[in-house]
Design brief:
220 residues, alpha+beta, Glucose Permease (Domain IIA), 8-stranded antiparallel beta sheet, 3-stranded antiparallel beta sheet, 3 helices, elongated
């Protein structure tokens, strides 16, 4: 399994500390307490490696299909007013990422990045609706030939670091990796209201693979 590069320092530190503990155990230092700590640290290091996994997406052939920007569970779908980039009505799809989900984010559509804004905030539990407004977040706006799309990475109770790589003017292809949120978090996807919705609340989605909607040309 490929790993996200951001995870190597965490995994490396955990493996070094666990290795030092096992060396001390091998030298008969510390007794059962140290051996228990060595097992716990080893398990934590393996979990960190697994947490930062970065699987290759399986993109659908149809270029008009919108893929999930995050991996987890769809917890909310609603029509909203989005004034920062969509400049009007939009359909919001909220995806909650638990600590057991992949935390890499990928572009749901192909297009040009025309909006990239970071906003500091609080760290409420990510599945709460107020997290969309109050929590630390990073928003990425993508312009397509059929309308605008906004992806918002939102930090959760444990997540304290959002990484967003593209800058305004960059081109993104559907399925490209564009960022990562460390530990439990949320991803909100805003789509034009005239696009066809192909998911529902409760769906489990895979990043870059699961289809959420279909692009439809803007009405005349």
């Amino acid at each position: 399994m490929r790993l996200a590069g951001e995870g190597y320092p965490f995994a490396g530190a955990g493996l070094v500390i666990a290795g030092a503990c096992w060396t001390a155990v091998w030298m008969n230092l510390g007794g059962a307490v140290l051996e228990t700590g060595a097992w716990l640290l080893s398990g934590l290091a393996v979990f960190v490696l697994w947490f930062f996994r970065d699987p290759e997406p399986k993109l659908p052939a149809d270029e008009d299909l919108v893929v999930s920007p995050g991996q987890g569970k769809v917890v909310l779908i609603e029509d909203v007013e989005e004034g920062t980039f969509m400049a009007g009505p939009a359909r919001k799809i909220s995806i909650f990422l638990s600590v057991f989900d992949v935390h890499v984010q990928r572009a749901p559509v192909s297009g040009s990045v025309e909006h990239s804004v970071y906003k500091p905030g609080t760290y409420a539990v990510a599945w709460l609706e107020k997290a969309s407004d109050d929590n630390e977040q990073s928003s990425l706006g993508i312009a397509t030939q059929n309308g605008r799309v906004l992806v918002r990475q939102i930090a959760g109770l444990i997540a304290r670091r959002i990484i967003t790589d593209p800058s305004e003017g960059d081109a993104l292809e559907r399925g490209d990796r564009f960022g990562l949120i460390r530990f439990g978090s949320r991803v909100d996807l805003f789509l034009p209201t005239h696009w066809e919705l192909l998911c529902e609340v409760g769906d489990k989605v895979r990043v870059g693979t699961t289809v959420l909607a279909r692009q439809v040309p803007e009405p005349a």
